[in-house]
Amino acid sequence: MANESRKCASGVMWSGAQSIVEDRSIATNVKNVSLLILDDLGKEFELSSAQAIIRDVIAKRYDSERPTIITTELTVTDIGVRYGRALAERVIGEAEDGGRFVTCGDLSLRLINRNCAA
Q: 20 to 30 A Cα–Cα from 41, which one of 18, 58, 80, 97?
């Protein structure tokens, strides 16, 4: 799988979870951008080292109060099992911190967007 990551103007970066795990420079950069869009959390290798990298990125961003938008097919429970309770709590966030977990159910937003374009 090719590394996919895009840095946009004004400190916004989009990156797939797999790219963060595969490339140390991406893992370093995503910790410091103003806004990270982390795509496909849970699609990276199921290795403890990969999980540690993801935990580190999210923890650093959380501690420095940098917003992160995460897309995933995992439930909050799945996130807790795979990455640990602390990361799941960071992802859920507190309402006063602006944290929010939105569930789309079995609805595929990719298919909706394709149908709307037709």
A: 97
